[in-house]
Design goal:
The protein is 88% helix and 0% strand. It contains 6 helices and no strands. By secondary structure, it is mostly helical.
Length: 178
């Protein structure tokens, strides 16, 4: 009984170590490909539009609701001590430091990340990635790097947009509603 338990734990640790190693090798190969091949600027701009501009409405909506709820909950807590004047700084600091980037990350992963994953997965199933490698096209340079660079460039702007929408909605909630 004890040996079965220890064997299952050992198997689990070995599987997770193997997965972590695969991720490390993938990251290493991607970085090598990033610095040794030419960037596809058109694909980067296309992915910036796809990841960033198409996610703008969802990110703004979640920022608006997050800022309004944060202002309302801050008012409830701060009103007990007569410190309603601190709602603005609380909303500003919370949205810019924590909630804006977290909300943005969740929405971009949910919207663009799942579609990208499904697209690359279907390309693997239909052997399109194997066809790229047969044609001597670096699949990481063609599929991964434009999305990685586009996400890295566009994410701070989406985060600022989410924070700005949250701060504005917190301001409107606290001045007009409260």
């Amino acid at each position: 009984m004890v040996t079965k338990f220890l064997t299952s734990i050992g198997t689990l640790v070995l599987e997770q170590g193997s997965r972590l190693g695969s991720v490390g090798i993938f990251f290493y190969e991607t970085m090598i490909s990033l610095f040794t091949t030419r960037l596809k600027v058109k694909k980067i701009f296309y992915n910036m539009q796809y990841i960033g501009v198409n996610s703008l409405a969802v990110v703004a909506l979640i920022g608006i609701t997050g800022g309004a709820v944060l202002a309302l909950q801050s008012y409830i807590g701060l009103h007990r001590f007569g410190a309603e004047r601190f709602i603005g700084p609380v909303v500003f600091l919370s949205m810019t430091r924590e909630l804006g980037p977290i909300f943005t990350g969740i929405m971009v992963i949910g919207r663009a990340g799942s579609v990208i994953t499904a697209e690359i997965g279907s390309m693997r199933i239909t052997e399109q990635i194997d066809a790229l490698e047969t044609l001597c096209i670096d699949s990481k340079q063609y599929l991964v790097i434009p999305r990685l660079i586009a996400g890295t460039i566009i994410f701070p702007f989406l985060s600022m947009m989410c924070s700005a929408c949250g701060i504005l909605s917190g301001y409107l909630t606290s001045t007009l509603l409260l």
